[in-house]
Automatic annotation (TrEMBL):
GO cellular component, one term: membrane
Domain TMEM205-like per the UniProt entry, residue ranges: 10-97
Transmembrane annotation, as ranges: 6-29, 49-65, 116-136
Record's protein name: TMEM205-like domain-containing protein
Location (main, coarse): membrane
Keywords annotated in UniProt: Membrane, Transmembrane, Transmembrane helix
InterPro entries: TMEM205-like
Cellular compartment(s): Membrane
Superkingdom, taxonomy of origin: Bacteria
Length: 137
Protein backbone atom coordinates (compact mmCIF):
# COMPACT_ATOMS: atom_id res chain seq x y z
CA UNK A 1 0.00 0.00 0.00
CA UNK A 2 2.74 2.48 0.98
CA UNK A 3 4.71 1.53 -2.13
CA UNK A 4 1.69 2.25 -4.35
CA UNK A 5 1.22 5.64 -2.69
CA UNK A 6 4.91 6.48 -3.21
CA UNK A 7 4.86 5.39 -6.85
CA UNK A 8 1.69 7.41 -7.49
CA UNK A 9 3.17 10.45 -5.75
CA UNK A 10 6.39 10.37 -7.79
CA UNK A 11 4.64 9.78 -11.12
CA UNK A 12 2.12 12.54 -10.40
CA UNK A 13 4.91 14.89 -9.30
CA UNK A 14 6.73 14.40 -12.59
CA UNK A 15 3.55 14.72 -14.62
CA UNK A 16 2.59 17.91 -12.79
CA UNK A 17 6.08 19.41 -12.96
CA UNK A 18 6.31 18.92 -16.72
CA UNK A 19 2.81 20.31 -17.21
CA UNK A 20 3.45 23.33 -14.97
CA UNK A 21 6.88 24.11 -16.39
CA UNK A 22 5.96 23.78 -20.05
CA UNK A 23 2.47 25.21 -19.77
CA UNK A 24 2.87 27.97 -17.20
CA UNK A 25 6.40 28.78 -16.01
CA UNK A 26 8.35 28.97 -19.28
CA UNK A 27 5.70 30.91 -21.24
CA UNK A 28 5.17 33.33 -18.34
CA UNK A 29 8.89 33.98 -17.96
CA UNK A 30 9.25 34.60 -21.69
CA UNK A 31 6.27 36.95 -21.69
CA UNK A 32 6.95 39.03 -18.59
CA UNK A 33 10.72 39.01 -18.08
CA UNK A 34 12.52 40.91 -20.79
CA UNK A 35 15.66 39.85 -22.63
CA UNK A 36 18.57 38.90 -20.43
CA UNK A 37 16.46 38.89 -17.28
CA UNK A 38 14.26 36.06 -18.58
CA UNK A 39 17.18 34.18 -20.10
CA UNK A 40 19.21 34.40 -16.88
CA UNK A 41 16.25 33.24 -14.81
CA UNK A 42 15.69 30.22 -17.07
CA UNK A 43 19.41 29.37 -17.07
CA UNK A 44 19.19 29.03 -13.31
CA UNK A 45 15.80 27.35 -13.16
CA UNK A 46 16.02 24.77 -15.96
CA UNK A 47 18.97 22.75 -14.56
CA UNK A 48 17.20 22.59 -11.19
CA UNK A 49 13.99 21.49 -12.90
CA UNK A 50 15.81 18.64 -14.63
CA UNK A 51 17.56 17.71 -11.38
CA UNK A 52 14.12 17.43 -9.79
CA UNK A 53 13.04 15.12 -12.64
CA UNK A 54 16.17 12.98 -12.22
CA UNK A 55 15.69 12.54 -8.47
CA UNK A 56 11.93 12.05 -8.67
CA UNK A 57 12.29 9.62 -11.57
CA UNK A 58 14.84 7.55 -9.66
CA UNK A 59 12.69 7.51 -6.53
CA UNK A 60 9.70 6.58 -8.67
CA UNK A 61 11.62 3.77 -10.34
CA UNK A 62 12.79 2.46 -6.97
CA UNK A 63 9.27 2.58 -5.53
CA UNK A 64 7.94 0.76 -8.63
CA UNK A 65 10.28 -2.23 -8.46
CA UNK A 66 7.32 -4.66 -8.28
CA UNK A 67 5.88 -3.20 -11.49
CA UNK A 68 8.60 -3.45 -14.16
CA UNK A 69 6.84 -1.35 -16.82
CA UNK A 70 6.26 1.48 -14.36
CA UNK A 71 9.81 1.23 -13.04
CA UNK A 72 11.16 1.34 -16.58
CA UNK A 73 9.07 4.42 -17.41
CA UNK A 74 10.27 6.27 -14.33
CA UNK A 75 13.89 5.24 -14.92
CA UNK A 76 13.57 6.39 -18.54
CA UNK A 77 12.41 9.81 -17.37
CA UNK A 78 15.32 9.99 -14.92
CA UNK A 79 17.86 8.95 -17.57
CA UNK A 80 16.61 11.34 -20.24
CA UNK A 81 16.49 14.17 -17.70
CA UNK A 82 20.07 13.47 -16.69
CA UNK A 83 21.10 13.50 -20.36
CA UNK A 84 19.32 16.81 -20.93
CA UNK A 85 20.81 18.40 -17.81
CA UNK A 86 24.38 17.25 -18.32
CA UNK A 87 24.72 17.10 -22.11
CA UNK A 88 22.05 19.09 -23.91
CA UNK A 89 21.71 22.14 -21.65
CA UNK A 90 25.38 23.17 -21.73
CA UNK A 91 25.34 22.91 -25.53
CA UNK A 92 22.02 24.75 -25.74
CA UNK A 93 23.26 27.58 -23.52
CA UNK A 94 26.48 27.90 -25.53
CA UNK A 95 24.50 28.02 -28.78
CA UNK A 96 22.22 30.67 -27.29
CA UNK A 97 25.24 32.79 -26.37
CA UNK A 98 26.57 32.51 -29.91
CA UNK A 99 23.10 33.25 -31.31
CA UNK A 100 23.01 36.47 -29.28
CA UNK A 101 26.29 37.43 -30.98
CA UNK A 102 24.50 37.14 -34.37
CA UNK A 103 25.99 33.77 -35.31
CA UNK A 104 23.54 32.43 -37.93
CA UNK A 105 24.81 28.86 -37.82
CA UNK A 106 24.52 28.78 -34.03
CA UNK A 107 21.04 30.27 -34.28
CA UNK A 108 19.86 27.47 -36.57
CA UNK A 109 21.44 24.83 -34.33
CA UNK A 110 19.86 26.44 -31.25
CA UNK A 111 16.40 26.30 -32.81
CA UNK A 112 16.84 22.63 -33.78
CA UNK A 113 18.15 21.63 -30.35
CA UNK A 114 15.37 23.52 -28.61
CA UNK A 115 12.81 21.68 -30.74
CA UNK A 116 14.41 18.37 -29.75
CA UNK A 117 14.16 19.40 -26.13
CA UNK A 118 10.45 20.20 -26.52
CA UNK A 119 9.83 16.82 -28.20
CA UNK A 120 11.74 15.07 -25.42
CA UNK A 121 9.72 16.90 -22.76
CA UNK A 122 6.50 15.87 -24.52
CA UNK A 123 7.70 12.26 -24.57
CA UNK A 124 8.52 12.43 -20.86
CA UNK A 125 5.05 13.86 -20.20
CA UNK A 126 3.45 10.98 -22.11
CA UNK A 127 5.55 8.40 -20.25
CA UNK A 128 4.60 9.92 -16.88
CA UNK A 129 0.95 9.92 -17.97
CA UNK A 130 1.21 6.29 -19.05
CA UNK A 131 2.72 5.34 -15.69
CA UNK A 132 -0.11 7.14 -13.91
CA UNK A 133 -2.65 5.39 -16.12
CA UNK A 134 -1.19 1.96 -15.33
CA UNK A 135 -1.28 2.77 -11.62
CA UNK A 136 -4.93 3.79 -11.86
CA UNK A 137 -5.84 0.79 -14.00
Amino acid sequence: MLQEIARTFFAASIFGAILAFGGVVAPTVMKYLEGDEGANFLRRLVPRYYFFLVVTGLLGAFSSWEEPAQAFGMALIAATSLFVREVMLPKLFALRDRQMESDREASAKFVRMRRRLVVLAAAQFLVAGAVLATIAW
